[in-house]
Write a structure and sequence with these properties.
heterodimer; A: 74 residues; alpha+beta; SH3 type barrels; globular; B: 596 residues; alpha/beta; Rossmann fold; six-stranded mixed β-sheet; two-stranded antiparallel ribbon; 7% strand; binds guanosine-5'-triphosphate; binds magnesium ion
């Protein structure tokens, strides 16, 4: 298990746990972040910018600090 | 009268559907959070008079941002006869959760699976009949943009209106909104049995375009190059249009108005022709360029590029205490600052919202664009023009960034940054046309309100008392100008320009109009006269001041209503005036010191 942040560009993983506070957790759920879902890291912005991930048919960008809260496993 | 509300997650096509049903022109754009306020219209639906309401998008019924509050507040305070839930079919596997939450409120609902066209293209099939049975509500597949399935959906909706339901009071809804509910498992079960998703879902065209536009090294340079080319385009196509329009309006004056009004008393003739007509027609000559500009803006907004801009700029914006969405609001502010200020409602923490709102009035809006196009056309060559314009946009960015850096400690926040990246879309000709028309209407509204007021005032001030030459030092305008001379002379801004600036406080459209009134000229003659009485350093200093000081009264009113704080409004006004003065002063004095 490791944070989403550590995923390599182009790799897939499965969401294992989400440790966000409630309002953020709800937003993540609404965007499709759910335990057991497959997630792919499409790209990272330069200068340590946001991550571009894909869950199902939804593309989402989020900062590394938020990605840190999402635990993934292979 | 019956009341129907459109509800759904952001960017699912609610406003598109609203426009289709009512013929209204609610703003549409490929960006989650375009609609942040209620919009309603009355339509006839199957024998019922219906008030249809377009709501802001919301992710779930327990959301905390200001735009989501608008929806909760609406549901808790208004009786609704029917909710039309709008979902994006391609994302049904996650968006169904909202439909389930709403079902639990117990209100009559119709579920519309929108963007059927896109879902079909990516190979998603949905068994809407069995989904309807499972959800116990009508489910229809539609495409709000192209119209497929919409008549059937409307028919269904009016049928539902005729079904008599036990009314649920808003207070009860409000109580149920608080209740927690377990819907995750149910959603998965329904999706599993009624939706067929292909193995690979990606939209390949979007992926290909993203490879270029979001390229780690090329992404940002491409953005700025595209921006520059856009100005080049607007200048090349727009300037002749503006010239032609000015000529037409001038001819109309000599051929029709002058003979017609020849018998009026001199002062009234002067007020009507040299005051109102010259003022308004000088501004009106810019309408074609403004339409052109908004057509481009519409395409950018509807393409889905805004979210990409947020992606590219977020790392930098984070250093300023803002995030990528703040950058997007600045880009929206290029059109008009008011909707951009309202667009910050998608932000949840107050610090982030206020800091973003403090920067938006510095974004170079289309009204200021008119002033610059006018000054640039008068004082610079066609070759220099796009560069000067580009430089002004860069100054706009610069002042925004500077403001954020200076104030970020006062408005600290820990707002998470998560944003959907929608697929690239292209607006239909109808969507582009509607938007262009909308802007013309908006312009005419402002013209009748602010610009007429402004030019009449300026005319009166420059013509009273009547025994001195118009606009000379002896007139009221001259005296007011003299009052401000100690502050504005060090910026190279003379009395005439000072008057234009003072009235520009109301709205920037007045600036160009009042220059026409002050000099008593129009069209080419006005530009020629400007070129003789100013040099480029003075013009630039004037433009810098115009760019940075408070954009208009509407912006000020919006700052106050959105922040709910007069203190914040004053901070914004005073800061922008101080910064405008400082930047113009430094520019003017150093240009002169360098011998220009
Ligand atoms: N392909 C396709 N695109 C659509 C359809 N309906 C809407 N769109 C596009 O989806 C985007 C969002 O549309 P809006 O009507 O602004 O969505 P909204 O639900 O009002 O969004 P918010 O106000 O942000 O909540 C726009 O680019 C529309 O042109 C559809 O049926 N098919
Ligand atoms: Mg909308």
């Amino acid at each position: 298990m490791k944070p989403l942040n550590d995923l390599n560009t182009g790799d897939y993983a499965t969401i294992h746990a989400i440790d966000a506070e409630q309002s953020l957790h709800q937003r993540l759920l609404a965007l499709g972040f759910r335990v057991g879902k497959k997630i792919e890291l499409i790209r990272r912005a330069s200068f340590n910018g946001p991550l571009h991930v894909r869950i199902g048919s939804t593309d989402v960008i989020l900062r590394a600090s938020e990605a840190q809260l999402i635990q993934i496993s292979h | 009268m019956k009341r129907i509300a459109l509800l759904g997650m952001p960017n699912t096509g609610k406003s598109t559907l609203f426009n289709r049903i009512t013929g209204a022109s609610a703003r549409v754009g490929n960006w989650p959070g375009i609609t942040v306020d209620l919009m309603s219209a009355k339509v006839l639906m199957g024998g019922h008079i219906v008030e249809l309401i377009d709501l802001p998008g919301l992710y779930d019924l327990h959301g905390f941002s200001d735009d989501e509050q608008v929806v909760r507040h609406f549901l808790s305070n208004n009786e609704v006869d029917l909710l039309m839930i709008v979902l994006n079919s391609s994302q049904i596997d996650r968006q169904l959760s909202l439909a389930l939450q709403i079902r639990n409120l117990g209100l009559p609902t119709v579920l519309l699976l929108n963007m059927q066209d896109e879902a079909k293209r990516s190979g998603i099939t949905i068994d809407s009949a069995s989904m309807a049975a499972k959800l116990n509500m009508p489910v229809l597949q539609i495409s709000a943009k192209y119209g497929d399935g919409c008549p059937a959906a409307l028919q269904k909706a009016s049928q539902q209106l005729s079904v008599v339901n036990a009314k649920i009071l808003p207070e009860e809804i409000s109580r149920r909104l608080e209740a927690e509910n377990q819907i995750e498992a149910e959603m998965q079960a329904i999706v599993k049995t009624t939706v067929q998703l292909p193995l690979k879902l990606a939209d390949e065209t979007t992926d290909k375009i993203d490879k270029v536009l979001l390229h780690p090294l090329l992404g940002l340079p491409l953005f700025f190059i595209a921006m520059f080319l856009l100005f080049q385009f607007i200048f090349t196509v727009g300037t002749p249009l503006q010239g032609g329009m000015a000529w037409l309006l001038g001819e109309f004056r000599t051929l029709a108005l002058e003979p017609l009004l020849a018998n009026l008393p001199t002062w009234l003739n002067g007020l009507l022709l040299d005051g109102i007509y010259n003022g308004i027609s000088t501004v009106a000559a810019f309408v074609p360029i403004i339409i052109l500009f908004f057509l481009v803006m519409t395409m950018v907004e509807d393409s889905g590029y805004l979210s990409r801009a947020a992606f590219l700029m977020d790392a930098f914006m984070a250093k300023l205490g803002l995030d990528g969405r703040g950058f997007v609001m600045m880009l929206m502010g290029f059109g008009c600052n008011v909707p951009a200020l309202m667009g910050t409602r998608v932000m949840r923490s107050r610090g982030m919202r206020l800091l973003t709102m403090l920067t938006i009035p510095l974004s170079l809006c289309s009204a200021r664009l008119q002033v610059f196009l006018f000054m640039i056309a008068a004082l610079f060559t066609a070759k220099q023009a796009p560069w000067v314009m580009f430089a002004l946009y860069m100054v706009s960015f610069g002042t925004i960034f500077l403001t954020a850096v200076l104030f970020k400690n006062q408005f600290q926040n820990k707002e998470p940054f998560i944003l959907e990246l929608p697929p690239y879309r292209f607006p239909t000709a109808m969507q582009i046309w509607l938007r262009g028309w909308q802007e013309v209407k908006y312009f005419l509204k402002r013209a009748t309100k602010f610009i007429v007021f402004g030019v009449v005032m300026v005319w009166a001030l420059t013509h009273y008392p009547t025994d001195v030459p118009p606009a000379s030092m002896g007139t009221l305008a001259g005296q007011i100008g003299a009052l401000f001379a100690p502050i504005l002379n060090p910026l190279g801004i003379d009395t005439q320009l000072a008057i234009a600036l003072i009235f520009g406080f109301v709205a920037k459209e007045i600036v160009v109009g009042s220059l026409a009134v002050i000099y008593g000229l129009q069209g080419d003659a006005l530009m020629h006269h400007m070129a003789l009485s100013l040099d480029w350093v003075q013009a630039m200093s004037f433009m810098l001041f115009t760019l940075i000081y408070t954009p208009c009264l509407s912006t000020i009113a919006t700052l106050k209503s959105e922040s709910k704080s007069s203190g914040f409004m004053w901070l914004s006004i005073i800061w922008s005036l101080a910064l405008a003065w400082l930047v113009s002063f430094i520019f003017y004095q150093s240009a002169r010191a360098l011998g220009f």
